[in-house]
Amino acid sequence: MTPAVDSVAVPPRGHRVRQTIEQLRARILGGEWPVGGRIPTEPQLVAALGVGRNTVREAVRALVHAGVLECRQGSGTYVVSTDELAPVVARRLTDDRMAEVIEVRRAFEVEAARLAALRRTPADLAALGGALAAREAAWRAGRVDGFVEADAALHTAVVAAAHNTMLAELYASVGAALRSTVAQAMGDTLEPERYVDHGRLVAAIRDGDPARAAIEAGAFLEAPSGA
Fold first, then answer.
1. pLDDT tens digits for 49-70?
2. How far is CA 127 from CA 15, 134, 182, in A?
3. Which of 25, 66, 112, 149 could staple 159 via S-S, CB 3.0–4.6 A?
4. Hey, what CATH topology would domain 5-82 get?
C-alpha cells in the first residue's frame, strides 16, 4: 500500500538545503567542479541531487553569498573558491594595502617557485611553457585585462607545479586580490617600462634549480610595480 504523502518522512526544508549545500561542497572539494569551472545547470542539479528546484536555488545562493560560487549573467554559475576564505581575504587585501599584498605574494610565490623546481613534471613544464607564451601574446595584444589574466594564469601554473594542495587552495583564495594589484600596477595601458620578463623564472623551474627559481620569483615582487 502506498503511504500517504503526509506520512512520508520528509526532512524540514532548512535541513534539505543544508544537506544540498554539503553535497555541492563535496563535489567542489573533490575536484568534480574545479575552481574556474562552471557547475551544472539548475535542472541538471535537481536531477543529480534528487531535490527540488527551490532547494537547489537556495543552496547555490548560499554558496554564492559565501564566495564559493559566482553567478555570471548569461553564462552560468562558476566555482571561484573551494572555501569561504576568498571573500574575507579580498576584503582585507584592498588596493590601499599594496605593500601587504606584495608581502603576501612573496610568501606564496617564492616558496611555490622553489617547490616547483623540485617537483615539476613534464605535464607541469608543458603547462608553464603554454602559460608563458600566452602571457607574452597577451602583452603584445596590448589589453590590460587580458594581460592581467594571462599573468595570473602563469603564476597559478607555478603554484600548481609545486604540488602542495594546501598552498594551491590558499593561493586560489587570494587570487582576485592579487590580480587587482597587477591591474593597478599596469594602469590603463601596457607601457614598455612596466614589462617584467618571467622567462627566467620558468627556465629556473625547468632546470630544476630551486634556489634560482626562488630568487627569480622574488625579484619582481620587490616593488609595487612587479607583476
1. 999 999 999 999 988 887 788 8
2. 43, 10, 21
3. 112
4. Arc Repressor Mutant, subunit A (1.10.10)
pLDDT digits (tens, 9 = 90+) for 69-109: 888 888 889 988 776 666 666 666 555 666 777 788 888 99
H/E stretch holding 77 reads strand 76-79
Total Cβ atoms within 10 A of residue 30: 9
The residue type of 122 is P
The CATH superfamily assigned to 86-219 is GntR ligand-binding domain-like (1.20.120.530)
For residue 79, give the amino acid letter: V
Classified as helix, coil or strand, 221 is coil
Q: Which helix (H) or strand (E) holds 35?
A: none
Largest Cα–Cα distance in the chain?
80
DSSP code for 52: -
79 three-state secondary structure: strand
